[in-house]
């Protein structure tokens, strides 16, 4: 029985950078992403975003000086450590998932100021986490955008590397059933077993759950090679306007990409702990 009528949609992918946001932002600009100005959350974290058509990438850190208010986040390894799934009503979805027996936290509200035509406006959000006690090396959470017009702005979506959307998320898991059970109950999000692992559709993106053997066979040394716990998020697929445009942007930034499954792959070591697969 479905747990909710709300769809399962990838909203954004979080790359944790701890107190190295300046360094990470420089890397991602050189990778060809147009980043938004630094954001300052009311919860204490700071970020830059790469906004795409249907989702976005977030570089999330904390100030190098002062109190670290988000202690729960800073315990995760740097790299791809958060997946935000979209909800139109976080409070209602939290109640539905709790009633279905899924482990969810209380929801919380926060915001960050955004400057629009010289005027400061609050971009506000409501989020809650699922599986906090069973997911390793990061988190799955649901995000309600109260002011999506302050996030998806056309001026922020023109990337020198031609990036259009996050199309794939790759998760190496020793207990894939844990993730399947957490995300079970959403319409049109039925897990499918493939030769490479398990896939779960999430809007315009696909979540790929791979065994360590399958991930290493497919990506080799391009992804993080060891981790504690049950799973780790290791790679993102990004659709681009043109591989030629992406290749030119990467070369200008000084990155060595290599051919990979019809696209281009940048190793995790060069991209702050997450492998990036550019594809048309």
TrEMBL record:
It holds the Pfam family Glyoxalase_3. Residues 10-183 form the Glyoxalase-like domain. PANTHER family: BLL2707 PROTEIN, GLYOXALASE-LIKE DOMAIN-CONTAINING PROTEIN. This is Glyoxalase-like domain-containing protein. The lineage of its organism: Bacteria, Pseudomonadati, Pseudomonadota, Alphaproteobacteria, Hyphomicrobiales.
């Amino acid at each position: 029985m479905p747990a909710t009528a709300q769809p399962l949609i990838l909203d954004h992918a979080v790359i944790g950078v701890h107190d190295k946001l300046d360094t990470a932002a420089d890397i991602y600009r050189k990778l060809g992403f147009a980043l938004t100005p630094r954001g300052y959350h009311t919860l204490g974290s700071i970020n830059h975003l790469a906004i795409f058509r249907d989702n976005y990438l977030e570089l999330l850190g904390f100030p190098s000086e002062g109190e670290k208010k988000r202690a729960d986040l800073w315990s995760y390894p740097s790299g791809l450590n958060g997946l935000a799934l979209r909800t139109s009503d976080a409070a209602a979805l939290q109640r539905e998932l709790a009633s279905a027996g899924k482990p969810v936290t209380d929801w919380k509200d926060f915001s960050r100021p955004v400057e629009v035509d010289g005027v400061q406006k609050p971009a506000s959000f409501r989020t809650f986490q699922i599986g906090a006690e069973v997911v390793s090396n990061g988190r799955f959470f649901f995000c309600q955008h109260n002011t999506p017009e302050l996030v998806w702005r056309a001026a922020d979506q023109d990337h020198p590397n031609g990036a259009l959307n996050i199309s794939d998320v790759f998760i190496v898991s020793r207990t894939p059933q844990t993730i399947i059970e957490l995300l079970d109950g959403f319409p049109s999000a039925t897990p499918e077993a493939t030769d490479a692992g398990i896939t779960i559709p999430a809007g315009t993106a696909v979540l790929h759950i791979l065994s360590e053997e399958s991930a290493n066979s497919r990506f080799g040394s391009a992804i993080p090679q060891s981790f504690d716990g049950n799973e780790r998020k290791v790679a993102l697929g990004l659709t681009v306007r043109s591989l030629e445009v992406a290749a030119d942007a990467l070369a200008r930034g000084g990155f060595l990409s290599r051919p990979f499954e019809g696209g281009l792959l940048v190793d995790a070591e060069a991209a702050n702990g997450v492998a990036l697969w550019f594809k048309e």
